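Worked Example 4.2. Consider the chain below.
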Amino acid sequence: MGATLEALRALQDLQFKLTLIRHSEESKRRDVRAKRHKVDGWKEKLGAFEERRLVHQQEIDGVDLEIKALEQKIEKLREDLNKSKTNREYATVLTALNTDKADVARLETLTLEYMGQIEDLSGEQTACQAEHDKAVQRAEKVTRILDEYLSSTAEKRAQLQKDYERAADAVAPEALRRFTRAAEHHDGEGLAPVTKANPKGKEFSCGTCNMTVTLEQLNGLRSRDDIQSCNGCGSILYLDAKDDE
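Applying the procedure from the previous section yields the following structure tokens:
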């Protein structure tokens, strides 16, 4: 194998190590985002409970005002009842009085219903709050895990990045450009081994996509320090001596 491909293989090894760290970091970040999303969901539900409780409380307050107004009317009707001078006037006032009393009883029953609904909501809200608190704890835990991972890998990541840049400087610009382009399409792996389709056969293929490697490409890899790209996936091909037996 030529010097260029050897340099690219060293570069890919560093790229692979960096990619592993980045993948692990991204996995942890996704977990953090997912856990925080659940916290937001429970927070939204808690807000909805509070809005419903407020609506019922406003309904109770409105009914209380109606009851107070009726009670004032009832007090006035009682006075009118005592002042009635005829049976007809007495009967009219008494009917109005009984009607208002019935309305007060109806409104008091409605108030109890609203209070019962608030009590039910309070129970549901308590359970929701408990789930929210658990979600917060889980989010805090995965956030700590991410922070600890970033801290524990910071030095290694920085050193790998320096080594990668140093290794990249040792590669010809055109070769580096082709490697970078291939690596972008294959999750950091810009190189692909040439493998035998059959150990006893003479047919070779790309280790990434199984596309057949031509004789011309093989000769370039065997005799020259050439960069040969797979015609299928675009990966830069390399051939180990043990695979060329």
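The chain has two domains: 19-171, 174-244. The CA atoms of residues 40 and 132 lie 9 Å apart. Compare this with Example 4.1 before moving on.
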